[in-house]
Amino acid sequence: MGTRDGWMIAPQDSSTTAPGTGFEFRLLGPLEVLRDGVGCPLGSGLSRALLACLLLEPNQVVSMDRLIDMLWEDDPPATARTIVHKSVSQLRKLFGAQRDDIGDGHPEIVTRPPGYLLRVDSDRIDAHRARALINHAHGLDPAERARVLAEALTLWRGPVLSDIADTRLYRMVAPNLDELRLLALEERVAADLELGRHQQLVLELSALVDQHPLRERLTGQLMLASYRAGHRAEAQARYHELRHRLSAELGIDPGPELRDLYERLLRDDDSLLEPGRRTSTPQSVGRPVPAELPPAPAGFVGRDAELGALDRVLANREPGAATQLAVLTGTAGVGKTALGLTWAHRVAHAFPDGQLYASLRGFDTERAPLAPGEALTSMLKALGVPADEIPVALDDRTALYRSLLAERRVLVLLDNARDSEQVRPLLPGSSASLVLVTSRRRLDGLVVRNGARVLPLETLPTETAIELLDRAGVPGKSASEPDAAAELAELCGGLPLALRIAAARLAANPARGVSDLVHELTDERNRLHALDIDDSDTSVRRAFDISYRSLHPVHADTFRLLGLVPGHTFTAPAVAALCGTDVPSAQRRLRALALAHLVVEPRPDRFGMHDLLRVYARDLLAVTAGHHDDRAALRRLLTHYLAVADHARRFLRPPQDTLDFRGAAGAPVPEIADRAQALEWFDAEWPNLVAAIRAANAGGLHELAWPLVRLQFNYLMVRCPWEDWIRVYTEGLDSARAVDDPAGKVLMSAGLGVAYARSGEPEQALAHYAESYRVAVLTGDPAWLAMTQVNMGSVLFRLGRYDEAQVHCEDALRVYRTLGDRYFEAGALNNLAQVEQVNGNLEAALAHLREAEAMYREADDLETLAMVLNNCGEVSIELERTEDGEDYHRQALDVALRCGSAIRQAAAYLGLGDAAHSRGDRQVARTRWETALAIFDAEGSPRATDVRRRLDHLSAASC
């Protein structure tokens, strides 16, 4: 399971027995691969690191971006993707997997967009086997628990992944695996203490405490073992030694459990001599311990009263009470998130079962607030729930989340909440966990219904503000000009965000004095008053204006125009189009803005803006109306998206329209040379494309809006994001109607029909297909008419209206044959084959499908070819030609993997399961159907119902 700040091994269902012959993978030491007990050469360090990445998340897709980030961090070579492809090829040769090996436990690296998946029995990976043993130990009697945990600990062979210690992967993974070992060791010691083995443990624990002097639980176990062994003074001395060390190094005292143990030692509590009695709450071993808190902000100062109030909330937790809940509220930029993160990191040790974090995007200007269901999905994954086991219904997700957190001590930080209803489903059900929420609103509903403690944040007092200026800027500069520093703090209104920006200005130019910045800030008062914005203190505007006015005029122009960008992120090519310049110039401008802290670069070559800065840029545009033709700039950006989308879509499947925008952009399009790169571009830009379509529609640029929607069709057919699909096509239809464009109305209505048909709503699909058909009839264009008839035939077939479907399919087939359009003829043949199939004319259906197959191969339309091959397999199995059917489905799977269509992959696995069932091989059928079900569920496909029905029948037959 990947976390935001690290990488933890993904939990897997696995037995606790060691593997026999075959492959065995070792991560708990130097990376090793054994085949039948013999070590295999692994080649370069990069190949070893790549294999480790895949082994840490077996049977799950690891994206290409994540692999590159783990292997090269911030400096990947230009050929990074090619190097990864070659390393994967080398690893595949190492495994020697052939197609016949699929499904028999042989490890296999599968290409599955947006990356790779290592299909392997997780019990053959020592890290996952160790976790399985630790999970198995939970709830066993002390003797068996000690034995199983000792077996798990033998799997560690030395420093974890020590042969790739120079990679980011190592820095992310090694601490988690080391922590897992220590947790298991502590649990094994606890079991031994219950068995009365304190005499033997004293020496072992003494060495362990020396190795881990700040580990409170180990110290407590040593104190208990020493006390039981009659070494009372040694037990007390260990406590004082830890207390002094914690105070000197961290400025904290021992935790309440250790203090309680010490007090019981002082009074010679008889219960300490009972080996069977546990002296502390066991930590959760064998379950993922999420550590999702983003880094605490540097240079944090002040807020002593608020930190003390949060400490009291933590100290006053009462067993059996409702969830402990605190809300930090205040204006934008007042430092709610900074305070929340700082406190969360300070008290993380009090939550041994982990820390969860979610940015709820309550006041994001570009993206909708994060739905509670989405937040729960992310948190459940962090808690170790496999994606395919996460419930669909929100209530079920909430119930599972609360069940997992019952009796667990977890800190949940919910940042930037919009309202109480967004937060309430994310609250655990007991007081074992604590929830901290930040919001620009008070969230009184949480106070009334959930007993939340609200802590309003005010701006910083002058002394603290000056300290923040020093810590975030040039240390000592404020002391050299105390009066000017105090005036600067006042001009910034004590708002932390404004103070940090002002400090950055001082740090960027060490020769600038504080008084110089004060003078510049004061001169801008009238100007800043005109830039007043909602939900912001004027000090933020003042600080922003200082940074903005110091820019070179070209960079200032660029910053203002960035306010037009409808999406949340942007690239240099997009900015080049927006500004009417070339890509190198756009890159230089963005780097300059990043240095001025006006844009950020969260990923290499992808930039973004803080939401307040985005509003500020847009307000600048309003003030400077007439200085730029903003509409022309937005048109250039939209045209860029049109050009790149048109270029990229042609790698996914042949276009089914006459639109061609490839030469429309003024700036060169990004280098996209194959299907994988096309999908990668669409995946990265999809949120921006959705926002661009919305902006084009809202801005009256309807002649660009609906074509931009249409150019996403090939991508939508592969990825199937149903809600976005329907949303953008609805926008597109509105635009096509606004300009009364017949082609647009035909294509937009047809696209909505496809979305509803594929998401299991044929009645809705029929309504849109019928609208498309009516417009096509009015145009008199035979090609449009035939296309809409193919669609009508498809949906009427789904509705069981087979005679009507056949008429439409045959009419369309005649037109396409007259026009000589083999590509569209293939679509008509495929639909006609389905009608023939349901009417029992299987040989005729197969003949039509074989014709369509040849035509789609000729057109290199892989996504549709995979569909037709699956249809061939289905008909062949009905004809009792099981071997032929299985071969068709295998071909379909191969093609679907090549084009990245998850839906077609699932259909292939479904057909392979049908073939196995026809042969009487129920176990293979179950495995393949379960794979199909997992994919269909993940994609939200209604075909999951058919698979469940098959599995239910299979289970019933086995009883």
UniProtKB/TrEMBL annotation:
Pfam families from the UniProt entry: BTAD, TPR_12, Trans_reg_C
DNA-binding residues: 13-120
Coiled coil (UniProt feature): 832-862
Matches recorded under Gene3D superfamilies: P-loop containing nucleotide triphosphate hydrolases, Tetratricopeptide repeat domain, Winged helix-like DNA-binding domain superfamily/Winged helix DNA-binding domain
InterPro entries per the UniProt record, alphabetical: AfsR-DnrI-RedD_regulator, BTAD, OmpR/PhoB-type_DNA-bd, P-loop_NTPase, Sig_transdc_resp-reg_C-effctor, TPR-like_helical_dom_sf, TPR_rpt, WH-like_DNA-bd_sf
Keywords: Coiled coil, DNA-binding, Transcription, Transcription regulation
Chain spans, region Disordered: 272-291
Superkingdom per UniProt: Bacteria
Ranges of residues in domain OmpR/PhoB-type: 13-120
Family from the record: Belongs to the AfsR/DnrI/RedD regulatory family.
The name this protein goes by in its record: BTAD domain-containing putative transcriptional regulator
Gene source species: Saccharopolyspora rosea
